[in-house]
Design brief:
By secondary structure, the chain is of the alpha+beta class. It is about 35% helix and about 25% strand.
């Protein structure tokens, strides 16, 4: 599974669980941490956990391992490390507080809409 397939699968999984304001940042040349960041949020702890769980399950179904998942129990900011793709799943209130889109403002937005088959 290549990084693009991981990215699209993870975004689709987030969308399937009702994640809001899904943003994909192309981090190539901006950060050494990952090639892509997915940033989204849910409106409750349970929704944040459902988004993270779905993302993990869908990526693993395709044979790709999840490197780590942090913050799942607290469900305020869950980080799902998929290798070259890192997902940041926030509770609504936490997303505006941390404002990763502004922090990584040098990273261009990546459009994956045409690949989602929604």
């Amino acid at each position: 599974m290549n990084e693009r397939e991981v990215l699209v699968t993870a975004v689709k999984a987030a969308d399937d669980k009702g994640a809001e304001d899904i943003v994909v940042l192309n981090m190539k040349g901006v950060s050494l941490v990952a090639d892509y960041f997915i940033i989204c949020h849910g409106n409750s702890d349970k929704q944040v956990q459902a988004i993270a769980r779905e993302m993990k399950e869908k990526v693993e179904e395709l044979g790709h391992s999840v490197k780590r998942m942090e913050g799942f129990d607290e469900a305020k900011w869950v980080l799902v490390d998929l290798g070259d793709v890192v997902a940041h799943i926030f509770h609504r209130d936490e997303r505006s507080y941390y404002n990763l889109e502004r922090l990584w403002g040098d990273a261009p937005l990546e459009n994956v809409q045409s690949e989602l088959n929604l």
